[in-house]
Amino acid sequence: MSYTLLSETRPVARKDHRCIWCGQKITKGEQYINEHSVFDGEMQNHHWHDECLEDAQLNNDYDWEFMPYSNERPILEGRPN
């Protein structure tokens, strides 16, 4: 297994996207993380909520082999559940 991060940007969504970690919608106008990477020789482009990428980094030990859309979105104060 090999993983290489090529770029990571934090744009504001011009259209709806789906978070690769939790599967919930990233809505138009929301800031998100857009990641371009290579995993086992395959180019990838993923969209993340900030808290989902942080959760993946803290609790997944950078074992980037995970099932897309199968994780819980972390609960943040002030955000409706």
What does this protein look like?
By secondary structure, the protein is an alpha+beta fold. 12% of the residues lie in helices and 31% in strands. It has one helix and five strands. Strands 1-4-5 form a three-stranded antiparallel sheet. A two-stranded antiparallel sheet has the order 2-3. β4 and β5 form a beta hairpin. The radius of gyration is 13 Å and the shape is globular. The relative contact order is 0.25.
How would the blueprint of this fold be written?
Elements: E1 3-9, E2 17-18, E3 25-26, E4 33-39, E5 42-48, H1 50-59
- Strand numbers in spatial order across the main sheet: 1-4-5
Low-confidence stretches: none
Nearest-integer average pLDDT: 88
Structural class by SSE content: alpha+beta
Q: H/E series, N to C?
A: EEEEEH
Q: Distance N terminus to C terminus?
A: 35 Å
Specify the helix fraction band: 10-25%
Number of strands: 5
Gross morphology is globular
Number of helical runs?
A: 1
